[in-house]
Amino acid sequence: MTNAADVAGTDTGRPADRAGPMPIFQTDILVPIAIAISSLLAGAVYTWFVGEDVNWDWQNYHEYNVWAVLTDRYGIDALPPGFQTYFNPTVYFPVYYLRHLLPLPYGLMIIGAVHGLNLLLIYFLIRVLLREVATTSAIGASILIAAVGPMTLSEVGTSFSDILTALPVIAGCILILSADGSRPGRYALAGLLIGAAVGLKLTNAVYALGAAAAVLAAGRPLLATLCLGLGGATGALATGGAWGLMLWREMGNPIFPLFNAVFQSPEVMPMNIMDWQFMPKGYLDALAYPFYWLIGDNRSSEYPFRDARFAVAALLILAGIGRTIVSRVTIVTQRDVQFLLFFIVSYAAWLAVFAIQRYAVVLELLCAPLIVLMMVRCFASPPVSSAAGALSLRMNGAIAATALLIALWSQPGDWFRRPWSNPYNPVIPRELHQAADYLVIDKPLAYIAPRLPSQSRFFQLADIGVPVMPGGVFDRRIRAALKSPLPGGIWELHTRGKPVREHLLERYGLRIDPSRPCVEIEGAWLGTEIEACPLAARDK
Predict the structure, then answer these.
(1) How far apart are alpha carbons 461 and 78 in whole angstroms?
(2) Res. 92: pLDDT tops 70
(3) pTM (2 decimals)?
């Protein structure tokens, strides 16, 4: 069987895919600088255009967890955001500081600009994959497809970490593909970056699996795997080790409250917390997911979106397999195989463990160079290697047209924003100006905690994932606080319009005080209100 890279060898007589280590910066420095500036501006301008981020997770734990670290709340409150209280907050510090230290909208525009740098990495990735064949059309198509990803766009300028940690993951992928089996330092650095992303957010572990699969197809797989593993462990410990050690010391589980069936912290039921609502119902259902997204079926996300890229990528991979079988010509290079392994293994792991669309931002971005790569490999005639040949005018036109159609078909998700003309800055009622104890019986409400008097205490009673264990540390903390209430009294917090779950209050001998009125605080989402009701002891 003939290999496309062998057909177009180099002057040295070596196959093109074996011609030596691939430099990452392969073109005039002005081009990547121009793309970097454009990416930064695109992210900043888009953030300004769509408004202030007030997503559910920001309301629930992104804001609170950082504030809790800075003000030493972990020994005072009891799970205000629920089980997310103990997620590693490190990755949320940049957006917290940018949001609070700079006037709106500039702080969030800066984080949006950083998010835009993912497009620069897509440029480098397509250059690594296609080398000299990476025409202006191929590069432009890759960047356009990446730029209009529904989840990518929905997270630009927000506190979500999926798009931020996509930067080290994609950079790690580039390093793996550019190492060519002869530069172990690149594998170690790739491991360091991807491991750091895992330490910051555990859901990135699926990309670590993809990276491990990719290095198995390297020129020296044993050395590459060893370097990747050492780098990965170092990166994960650097970003998540201290937090994990604290959790192990305080809770008996280094990733508390996750996988508690394994670690069995006494503060949580011995079970593994999993979100099953987005998971496929079987193998055929799993295979159909890319085509569900094509028609706007959002079964993997809370809110609507539409995306053609995964369906197009799947069809192109099948076309590549078909062309290889029919023509008996291997149309992909070793580097292509590594990239396909990275993508397919990561996708399969994501689908099997989460199937939550936000966690697939990296895959969404990687679809862009994958589509362009497979179009070149499948439809260029004769097969064009990554180091020789040229794309025809028709091929360039087909790539550009495909990118444009994907862009026009895409519909981004929406995690809720406020117009910059009406930023979130609620007025706290005078009844709540004194430090008080707050029993939280709804989510997401923890974001209001930093806006109430600093000596106040917050106790979540309604979380399903981590209910307060009778006699546990949180239960004892709540009962001790209620025996010595703060000057502002005891209040409950819930979203207006939702029923007050008084059975949660009964456990602590409390009820809504009918002699005093409830008060309202403007909610982060337009049209919502947080209701605070005074509590009194139940009649014995």
Answers:
(1) 9
(2) yes
(3) 0.93
